[in-house]
């Protein structure tokens, strides 16, 4: 909070939560008190590993004090907590002998929880973490963060505030059909934006990196519960090596709606699929080209979102034939919601009857 400039900066643990918050309120009239406020992006920052690890174990901004006596008041708690940093909220509940102090950062709360039990004022009292009210499920909670639909199995793997207990983003798919292609893989992937599909045909394996760890977890849980079939063959699903932090160039492009899919149009008669493949393959490996001839438009999906970003940023300036066309991001079909769990519709048909060539069994 910078009072002299009447502004503040909110830093989320998960980048996806910040994006969800921004998208939820962008363009809306938001009031704090009687003052209308503006939203925008601050400088990119990375959550320190020690804070992330502590959050996975239950840390948050809210400190719980139990077994309180009459000495515990808002004034006494303010005196004890102010040395750790700015206080967001203090709540004392005398009839339950408990109290909660919301600090303005997780790091401040971590110091308080580590230090206060050794102070005389807190002798005989319990000091631990409460629940951060900013991490409530619902509204902008876990369901929206999954990129579509709330999956109870995925939620069971999350900690306070919907943070995944394992921040993995990369899934391993093994035992693929010898004739499988990146398109076959992406036809099955659902639940979140895909950053990259690393297909290794010689090993019949693939590694799929999602933007959001929670999308990867939801698919991992569903795949292990129901099985995954790609091109008529059931495949193995597991975890790959942890993906590095999303590069700032990709993170900034995501704020502008970046996906693996690029829209281009209107196309004239000379622009066919082969021409698009030749021109677009200079930017990276192509997963799928979809021509919508009756609308004179096309969509090119890459295996790597970084390739799509390069196209949108450079194609019109590097290739004169596209200078007058619209080149923008399309929708990544992998970001479509996971279908309901199989258990929800088995009563409509016999088990196995709707397995099909690909999907979840």
From TrEMBL:
It comes from the Eukaryota. It holds the Pfam family RRM_1. GO terms for cellular component: cytoplasmic stress granule. GO terms for biological process: mRNA splicing, via spliceosome; regulation of gene expression; regulation of RNA metabolic process. PROSITE patterns: RRM. One of its GO terms (molecular function) is mRNA binding. Keywords: Repeat, RNA-binding. The keyword Repeat applies. Residues 61-134, 169-242, 260-332 form the RRM domain. Residues 338-361 are annotated as: Disordered. This is RRM domain-containing protein. It comes from Rhizoclosmatium globosum.
């Amino acid at each position: 909070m910078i009072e002299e400039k009447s502004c503040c900066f909110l830093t989320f643990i998960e980048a996806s939560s910040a994006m969800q918050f921004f998208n939820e309120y962008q363009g809306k009239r938001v009031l704090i008190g009687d003052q209308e406020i503006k939203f925008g992006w601050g400088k990119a920052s990375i959550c320190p590993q020690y804070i992330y690890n502590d959050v996975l174990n239950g840390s948050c901004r809210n400190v719980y004090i139990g077994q309180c006596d009459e000495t515990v008041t808002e004034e006494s708690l303010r005196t004890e907590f102010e040395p750790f940093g700015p206080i967001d909220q203090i709540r004392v509940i005398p009839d339950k002998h408990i109290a909660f102090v919301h600090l303005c950062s997780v790091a401040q709360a971590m110091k308080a929880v580590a230090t206060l039990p050794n102070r005389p004022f807190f002798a005989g009292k319990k000091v631990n973490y409460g629940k951060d009210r900013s991490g409530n499920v619902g509204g902008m909670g876990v369901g929206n963060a999954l990129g579509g639909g709330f999956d109870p199995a995925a939620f069971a793997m999350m900690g306070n505030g919907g943070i995944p207990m394992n921040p993995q983003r990369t899934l391993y798919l093994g035992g693929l059909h010898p004739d499988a292609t990146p398109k076959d893989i992406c036809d099955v992937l659902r639940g979140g934006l895909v950053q990259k599909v690393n297909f290794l045909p010689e090993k019949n394996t693939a590694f799929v990196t999602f933007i959001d760890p929670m999308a990867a977890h939801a698919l991992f849980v569903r795949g292990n519960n129901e099985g995954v079939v790609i091109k008529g063959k059931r495949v193995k699903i597991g975890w790959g090596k942890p993906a590095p932090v999303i590069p700032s160039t990709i993170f900034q492009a995501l704020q502008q709606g970046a996906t693996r899919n690029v829209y281009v149009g209107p196309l004239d008669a000379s622009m066919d699929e082969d021409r698009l493949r030749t021109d677009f393959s200079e930017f990276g490996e192509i997963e799928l080209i979809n021509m919508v001839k009756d609308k004179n438009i096309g969509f090119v999906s890459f295996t790597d979102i970084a390739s799509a970003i390069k196209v949108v940023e450079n194609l019109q300036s590097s290739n004169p034939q596209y200078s007058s066309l619209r080149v923008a991001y399309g929708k990544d079909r992998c970001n479509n919601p996971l279908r309901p769990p199989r258990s929800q519709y088995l009563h409509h048909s016999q088990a196995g009857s709707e397995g099909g060539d690909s999907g979840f069994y």
